[in-house]
Each structure stands twice: as C-alpha cells, then as structure tokens.
UniProtKB/TrEMBL annotation:
Keywords, in A-Z order: ATP-binding, Chaperone, Endoplasmic reticulum, Nucleotide-binding, Signal
Bias type Polar residues, positions: 803-818
Residue ranges, annotated region (Disordered): 543-570, 786-825
Any single GO BP term: endoplasmic reticulum unfolded protein response
Source species of the chain: Pisolithus tinctorius Marx 270
PANTHER family hit by this protein: HSC70CB, ISOFORM G-RELATED (PTHR45639), HYPOXIA UP-REGULATED PROTEIN 1 (PTHR45639:SF3)
Protein name, per record: Actin-like ATPase domain-containing protein
C-alpha cells in the first residue's frame, strides 16, 4: 500500500536528519481539530511520526474536563460530559476567535452542554459548574500544553517550537486566537499553516514532479467544516544554486464553514431526540446529561450507519430514569441530511473557480479529513468529480499533521529536508480604509490584498496629500463569517506634520507618507511601517515628475511592491500605533495572567499528586508493617525483633492507621511523610539486625583474607630483607616499615577477634556487637597499607664508574644513593 512507502520514506528522512545536526531543538506540529487533535514530533534521533497519547492512541479527543479537582484530557474528558455536563468542554474550535454574538457561537450552544459567557474581549469564555470561567484560548492552551508534555516525554527535553494547522478560511481573529493559545501553553509559534497546504506537503514528500505543473484538489472534510484547496505541483530549479526543488502553489480555496461531521451528528441527534420525545413524552432537551448522552450516542450510530442500513440506539438511563432504545435507519439519517447534499462538493467548484481552472485540468481529488469516510459525503464528491479522479492516497487522519511537521522542520532550518517550497494564498479580500484628506470628507477603500494574494508579501501605499496625522484601517471587504466584524485593526500614524516639514526644510519637493502593509507567511495582515519620504534635490529644484495626481481632487494612492527606499537623508520614520476596536487579540497582560492561571493549575496538580503519593505510600507501609507483625515466628522480622519493639510498632501502626482515615484525609504532604518516618524509625533497627546477620559471613571472610595475605607478605618480605642485608644489596623496605605493617595487622586481628567473640554472645534480636560496615572499612585500610608496600619498585643499584676499578670486588657503600625512597604515606 502506498502508506507503507510513505512511512519508509519518513524513516529515511529521520535518519538523514540525525546525520546533520545533533543537539537541536525539536519541532512539534499540532493539527487541532474540532473533535480530534493529532501531533507529530521532529527531533534528530527520534523517528518522525505521529505522537501517541498515554493510551498509545494516534489521535486525541479535543476535550478538557474536570471531575471535581481532577483535570482530564482526551477521551476521558469527553466521556465525562454525560456525568458532569457543565465541566466537560469539547468542540471548542467552533469558538476560537469568534465574537460572542456570532453564528458559530450560537451553533456551539446547539450542540454543546457547556455554559458560554461573553468576556471582556467580546469573545467567549466557558463557565464550569462551580463558577470558574476560562476563556476559549485558555481551555485550548491546556490541551496544547498537554500535547507539549507528551512530546517532551518522547523528546526527553523541553519542546517549544510549534506549527499548528488552521483551516484556510481562518480570519485574522481566529488566527490570533490560535497564536494566543499557543503562547499561553508555553509554546512558540513557528508558523500557522493552512491544513490543505500541509496535506499537499505531505503528498509531495514521497513524489517527484516534472517542470509542467500538475493540478490536484485537496478535499478535506472535517468535523466543523469542509474545504477544498486547488494546488499545483511542479519541479523547479533554484536560480542561485541550480538545485531542483518541488514548488507547491495554492491556486484556489473553497470552503463551507458550517457543513461537516458535527452537523451530521447534530442532525442524527435530532432524530434521537424526536424518537425519545415521541415515545416518552418528556422534554429531554432540558436535561443536560441526557443531551450529552444522546450526543455521544449519535456519534456512535453515525459510524454504524456508515456500514449498515440501520442501527439500534441504546442509552441506559438517558434521562428521567428512562432507558432509551430506538432503531435508526440510514435512509432516515440521509433524509434528514438531504439539504446538505448540494453543499458537500460545492467547495471544490468554488476552489476551481478561484483558481481559474476547470475540473478537466485536475489530475486527482485527494480525500482527507475524518468525515471524508462518511458515505454520504464521499458519494456526493464522487458524483461531482467522477470516480476515477478520487484519490485515497494520503492518510486521511494524519497527512495534515505530518505535512505540518515537515513544514516546521524546513522553517527551523535545522533539519536537512527534501526541498519543498510552498506559496499559500489569502481567501478573503482585505482593504485599507482611510478618510480622504479633505476635511469632513468620505472614506476611501483600497483593495490592498485581493482574494488570492500570496502569503509573505508586502504592499506599500504612498499618500501624497497627507499633511497631518491620520489613521488607516485594515478590514475585510466582505463579511467573512456570520456575526464576525469586518474591521481588523486601526493603525494610527502620527508625527506626519513634523516629518514632512523637516523634509521640506531640507529641500525635498512634495514629500509623501508611505505605509507598508504586510501579509505574513502565516496569513496575518499588519501595518508594518509608516515613513515620510522625500527626495532631497541637491542643485536645481527644477521640474519634478510629481504631476501625478497632485492636482487631482482624489488622493493618488500608488502601490509599490515592497520597494525599500532607505536613503537616510530622505526618510523619516513615523510613529505607528495599532488599535483594535472590534475583536482584539489578547494583550500581553492578558496572556501573562492566563499563563499564570494555567501554571498555578499545573503546580496545584503536581503538589496534589505528591500528596497522593505520600498518602498511598504511608497507607501501603502500614499494610506492610501489619503483615510483618502477623507473620509466623520464622521470618527475619520476627527473629530480629524484641516483643517490646513489636508492641511499640503495633501501637504506632494502630494510631497512624486511625489518624490516616480521619485527620490524615486532609493532611498535607509533609505531615504524611513525617508519620511515615516515625514508623520507619521503629522498624529500622530490626531491619538493620537481619541485614547484619546476612552480611556478617562475607565481611568476616574478607577481613580474614586481608589478615592472611598480610601475614604471608610479611613473612616473605622479612626473609628477603634479611637475605638482601646479608648480601649487602638494597631492599625495597626498611625493617621499620615491615614492623609498622605487622603492628597494623595485629591491631586488626585483635579488634576482629574481640568483636567476633562478643558477637557470638549477641542474640538475633539484639543490636550487633560488631558492624559489618566497620569490618569492611578496617579491612580496606589494611589492604591499602599492604598494597602500598607490595607495589614498591625494587631499588636501583647505583652504578659506579668503571675507571675507579673498584667495581668488581670493592665493597660499595650500600646506603650511598641507593637508600630506597621511603614512601611518604
Ligand atoms: C530633521 O530630522 C533629523 C533626523 O531625522 C534631525 O536630526 C533634525 O534635527 C530634524 N530637523 C528638523 C528641523 O526637525
Ligand atoms: C571466602 O571467600 C572465598 C573467595 O573469596 C571463598 O572461596 C570462600 O568460600 C569464602 N568463605 C566463606 C566462609 O564465605
Ligand atoms: C622475595 O624474593 C623473591 C626472590 O627474589 C621474590 O620472588 C619475591 O617476590 C620476594 N618477595 C617479596 C614479598 O617481595
Ligand atoms: C589472622 O591470621 C593469623 C595467621 O593466619 C591467624 O593466626 C589469626 O587467627 C587470624 N586472625 C583472625 C582474626 O582471623
Ligand atoms: C657511606 O656514605 C655515606 C654518605 O654518602 C657516608 O656518610 C658514610 O660514611 C659512607 N660509609 C662508608 C662505609 O663508606
């Protein structure tokens, strides 16, 4: 299968990356979806793959929940909804960057049991059962932080850099919300990447292309939306290095923000609700737990109906103590979704129209996203584009997160990756708006980034009639989503009069104000720079080419593409202040306080965990002591303890046990540890005794061994010394040294003999008379003493010069220069 070859390629890739850089930062990629999130980790030495969660699953439910004080993630969190509907938060992506009064928020309230509240930034916070409120960004940050920890466990180091996928239609507001959540989670945004583009990168990884572009559509059916991205793939040559690379260009995007798996679930749940109401005549909509249970059941039934013509919905005690059972047919489900049929394939047509291409030029439509497996959706797409164009050659769940990981690796420039370059586009129209310079006059709109503008470009606007400070607004030309504002930001430009005056004074003719607006690689627009610019003419201030527009009533605004005119003498930077009057991203202070809240939560959980460990350890220790006391008389514990000691332990165990299940329930970690230490101090002497009994024979053997070796050495050394003295030869040792060693061994023997004698009279349940620790250390001292002498090198016999003629038979002064160097130790 194709997927296997992809895996192999990725493995090779990981190996290559290890060859290059070794101690470099890891790159995390997260595909944060409405229902599921996936993550991948790129780190030298770690095979590049999707991260597994604690249950070894490759995808993690996008949920966070509280069960009293315990915070849960993933499926555990999602499942809590049926018990604690106000404390379980899922489908949060629908709320990301959405104004409180928007269509997506009201949709969320239809499918979720969570309480939404409007926060100070006019976006959404969620309220727990106990009243604690969390912003959407904070709740998503908790999940990102959870993934960060999973990645760190695999990487064995801190992970900071992250690439997160976003739907291509995500507006500035939504992109800001993603970036804010990333920051709160303690991560750093390397980039945001449109999910279709990420899939395209993944697709290109294992394929080669010719210089003639081939066109494909990435069709991504997710939980909350469906999007189609028209992409061209071609090989190209780098003009500088002449190296080949793969060029991916996004040519068009189409999307439906309100059709997807979640909407199908919702319609299926409506069927269940209706079945319940008809049968039991009770309004289940008022019962949050019941609604949460039916939501989960709808998801289950949808999967069954993908492969079967009917399914039996069964929920025990769904609400009002009623066990619910209903047979649902696929026909019933499909009928309820009839209105959606035309919408499933529409994004493909829209994307093609935006790209200016017809279906005929498309080589394949690559299906991805969890909902692309839903028969209803797949059939609609097959019918629209033709069976032969459908390609199931990427992993529908993982292509985006793997592509995002590869993209992150290429951005970090720390990994040697296949050279793939991608240009992405803006699917919305962004205009710059400002008041005309004449007082009280109208607003002028300039389409600065038309639909399809490439990411990573800049535009410069020249204003030749501005003499005073003014504001420039960046806004969407059309409504981007129901209830979303059009205004993105206001850039206030000040210091204009002074700067123009300065330039004029220095001889510039008709100086202008230039404002640079940027569309970043991650799809954010910003006003990057504002300057006053004028050409300072040196000699003849003659005819200028400034006739353009100067006299016209309308202001002449010229675009120039990122032309850097950095003539110091003629450029003065203007002051630029960005103001958000619609949906503001989180301020630095907001983000800091959110991070502090999350950190406090983390710290609390860690200390709670320590406390639980201390509690459990103490409880376990009490069990162990009880068992020891109850054991038969032959156990080491029994043999080595006195009745009085066992009584003391028994009393303490009973006291501590009673305490643990009363006051102990609320005791802090250090008190719990203190209680354990108090018990340990009673058990320790007993344990020490049987440890000593166990270790005694070996310690004695070793002591005697060194005693014996030393004696052996002394006997031989003395004999040699005597012989050498007699022969008038130098010796390695002096008599004093050998005497000193003998004294040491005798002392050792004496100490050992006394100890061993005493020990013979010690009972098992008494403390030992001689400690094995002391035996070992004394044996070691003796050993070192002996080694020092054994290792001594033989002294050199001093050579007397031949000319003296006394060498052969003359008696030499044996101590002359041949005295062995005394060991100083
Ligand atoms: C003009 O600007 C230059 C540098 O920007 C500054 O040194 C000079 O003082 C200014 N002159 C006037 C008249 O503001
Ligand atoms: C003492 O140690 C030697 C080897 O180091 C061993 O052969 C001998 O069995 C030991 N004796 C006892 C009593 O442990
Ligand atoms: C004593 O002398 C003999 C013969 O030279 C030698 O083999 C032996 O190692 C010496 N003993 C010591 C303890 O140095
Ligand atoms: C030490 O060794 C000597 C000679 O082998 C022996 O007589 C003596 O009993 C030993 N002492 C002990 C404590 O083992
Ligand atoms: C040996 O040499 C030492 C010093 O070098 C000297 O003091 C001593 O008198 C000499 N002894 C003989 C016998 O030559």
């Amino acid at each position: 299968m194709h997927f296997t070859s992809l895996r192999r390629a990725l493995c090779i890739f990981a190996v290559v990356s290890t060859l290059f850089e070794l101690s470099l930062a890891a790159v995390l990629a997260i595909d944060y979806g409405t229902d599921w999130m996936k993550a991948s980790l790129m780190k030298p030495g770690v095979p590049f793959d999707v991260l597994l969660n604690k249950d070894s699953k490759r995808k993690i439910q996008s949920s966070v929940a509280w069960k009293r004080d315990d915070r849960l993630f993933g499926t555990d969190a999602a499942n809590l909804a049926s018990r604690f509907p106000s404390d379980s938060f899922s489908s949060l992506k629908l709320l990301q960057g959405a104004p409180f009064d928007s269509g997506s928020v009201s949709y969320f309230t239809q499918i979720s049991t969570s309480d939404v509240v409007k926060n100070t930034r006019s976006s959404v916070s969620l309220r727990q059962g106990g009243g604690t409120e969390w912003s959407t960004e904070e709740l998503i940050a908790m999940q990102l932080s959870y993934v960060k920890k999973l990645a760190e466990d695999v990487a064995g180091e801190l992970v900071r850099d992250v690439v997160v996928t976003v739907p291509p239609y995500y507006t500035q507001f939504e992109r800001d919300a993603v970036a804010d959540a990333i920051e709160i989670a303690g991560l750093k945004t390397l980039a945001l990447i449109n999910d279709g583009s990420a899939v395209a990168i993944n697709y290109a990884m294992t394929r080669t292309f010719s210089p003639t572009p081939e066109y494909h559509v990435i069709y991504d059916a997710g939980a909350s939306s469906i999007r189609a991205t028209v992409v061209s793939f071609a090989s190209a040559e780098d003009p500088k290095t002449k190296a080949q690379f793969t060029q991916i260009s996004v040519l068009g995007v189409g999307f439906d923000r309100s059709t997807g798996g979640t909407e199908l679930d919702r319609r299926l749940r409506e069927i269940l609700i209706e079945a319940f109401v008809n049968k039991h005549k009770r309004d289940i909509r008022r019962d949050k737990r019941g609604m949460a249970k039916l939501w989960k059941e709808a998801g289950r039934i949808k999967t069954i109906l993908s492969a079967n013509s009917d399914a039996m919905a069964t929920v025990e005690s769904v609400a009002f103590d009623i066990d619910f059972k209903a047979k649902i047919t696929r026909a019933q489900f499909e009928k309820s979704c009839e209105g959606l049929n035309g919408r499933f394939a529409q994004p493909i047509y829209d994307a093609l129209a935006n790209a200016g291409l017809s279906l005929d030029s498309i080589a394949s439509v690559i299906l991805t996203g969890g909902s692309s497996r839903t028969p209803m959706i797949q059939t609609a797409v097959r019918t629209a584009v033709g069976d032969d164009r459908i390609a199931l050659n990427v992993n529908a769940d993982e292509a985006a997160v793997l592509g995002a990981g590869l993209y992150g690796a290429s951005l970090s420039r720390q990994f040697k990756t296949k050279d793939i370059r991608i240009t992405d586009i803006l699917p919305h129209e962004v205009q710059a708006s400002y008041f005309a310079s004449a007082p009280g006059s109208r607003t002028i709109h300039s389409l600065i980034f038309p639909r399809g503008s490439k990411h990573g470009t800049k535009k410069t606007l020249s204003f030749n009639k501005r003499k005073e400070d003014f504001s420039l607004w960046l806004d969407y030309k059309n409504e981007v989503a129901p209830g979303f504002p059009r205004e993105i930001l206001e850039a206030q430009i000040s210091g204009v009069a002074d700067a123009l005056g300065n330039l004029t004074e220095r001889g510039a003719v008709d100086p202008v104000v230039k404002v640079t607006v940027a569309l970043s690689d991650s799809g954010f627009v910003s006003v990057e720079e504002a300057i006053a610019y004028g050409e300072v003419k040196s000699s003849i201030a003659g005819e200028t080419d400034g006739a353009a527009g100067g006299e016209k009533e309308n202001e002449q605004v010229a675009f120039s593409k990122d032309k850097k005119e950095k003539d110091e003498s003629s450029t003065i930077p203007l002051q630029l202040t960005t103001v958000y009057s619609t949906l503001a991203p989180m301020s630095v202070a907001d983000k800091r306080s959110a991070r502090d809240r999350l950190r406090a939560l983390d710290n609390m959980e860690v200390s709670k965990q320590f406390r639980e460990e201390a509690f459990n350890t103490l409880e376990g220790y009490l069990y162990k002591l009880r068992d020891l006391l109850d054991d038969g008389p032959e156990t080491p514990f029994m043999k080595c303890s006195k009745p009085s000691e066992r009584e003391a332990i028994s009393r303490k165990v009973a006291d501590t046990s009673a305490w643990l299940h009363s006051d102990g329930e609320a005791a802090d970690t250090s008190t719990l540890m203190e209680k354990r230490r108090a018990l340990e101090s009673l058990e320790k002497p007993i344990v020490h005794r049987y440890k000593e009994i166990e270790e005694f024979p070996e310690a004695l053997n070793s002591s005697q061994k060194w005693n014996w070796s030393t004696r052996l050495f002394l006997a031989e050394a003395r004999a040699n010394l005597t012989a050498e003295t007699a022969a008038g030869l130098p010796s390695k040792w002096t008599t004093e040294e050998l005497d000193a060693l003998e004294k040491a061994v005798k002392e050792h023997e004496a100490w050992l003999n006394t100890g061993v004698e005493k020990q013979k009279r010690v009972k098992m349940n008494e403390d030992p008379a001689i400690e094995t620790r002391d035996m070992r250390s004394r044996a070691k001292t003796l050993e070192l003493h002996l080694q020092r002498l054994v290792k001594r090198k033989a002294p050199k016999v001093k050579k007397t010069p031949k000319s003296t003629g006394t060498q052969e038979n003359g008696e030499s002064n044996e101590t002359d220069g041949t005295q062995p160097a005394h060991d100083e130790l």
